[in-house]
Amino acid sequence: MRDFLVDRLPAVAPVTEMLAAGEFVDRTGRPWTGAEPYRPNAFVWFHRQLVAEPVVPFAIDVLHADERIVVVDKPHFLATTPRGTHVRETALVRVRESLGLPELAAAHRLDRLTAGVLVLTTERRHRAAYAGLFQTRDVHKSYEALAPFDPELEFPRRVHSRIEKRRGSLQAEVVDGEPNAETLIDVVEVRGTQARYLLTPVTGRTHQLRVQLAALGLPILGDPLYPTVLDVDAGDFTTPLQLVARRLAFTDPVDNGPRDYSSRFALEWPPDAR
Questions:
Q1: Is the pTM of this model over 0.90?
Q2: Rounded CA gap, 238 and 230, in Å?
Q3: What is the mean pLDDT of residues 60-80?
Q4: Can you name the residues that pair with 191 across neighbouring β-strands?
Q5: Strand, coil or helix: 141
Q6: In contact, 144 and 199? CB cutoff 8 Å
Q7: 112 — alpha (psi -120 to 50), left (phi > 0) or beta?
């Protein structure tokens, strides 16, 4: 079990010291020593020490709130839910605390670097109904992005590709095989060498829009991962990814009413395209 914990936890986690202190326990509360034989599908419980997080200096606006859902306009650089080094500086924790909703949960996710419309459910009893809409793709989602313009490419175009993300890799990649990602891409506006694109994803693979545009030779402006991984300081908020989840619409699964929300975030054209 010690080898398993060392393999699964970040390198900074002091597994040996935590085992010695009895900080890993099984579901009954019995401490693990680490000498136990590996047990597949066993639950291992522990409290992770939180490190200081850079404060994301952008507000999260509430677009709509009722007894079942809260819809927010998530800024760039703010993660959707606690994960990795981002815990308090997440949309979920911020809205839970500001609205006093301890059972608040995300119905879907947006990348940390992507801004735009995000739906949260207020109580556990409402979660399945709204999360189910995203799982069955009964939601219309559209994004806008700024990226280079290539006059030799024809638009609109429907992109089908197979995207996979290997464990331990920051990037997802397009690989050979049966397509599992589909996006309709169109050009909305051209300014010199740059363009504003309307992206309508049919599927929701990890980094799908960023990967597919980069594969076309059109990496989204401000992207620190595609096509090249850049070393960006966690506290550097000067270059936001120019990708916004612009619009989200669906039929409410509880009252069958229409729901339609739009992000207010503006894309920032580079100086030579303004």
A1: no
A2: 14
A3: 97
A4: 194
A5: strand
A6: yes
A7: alpha
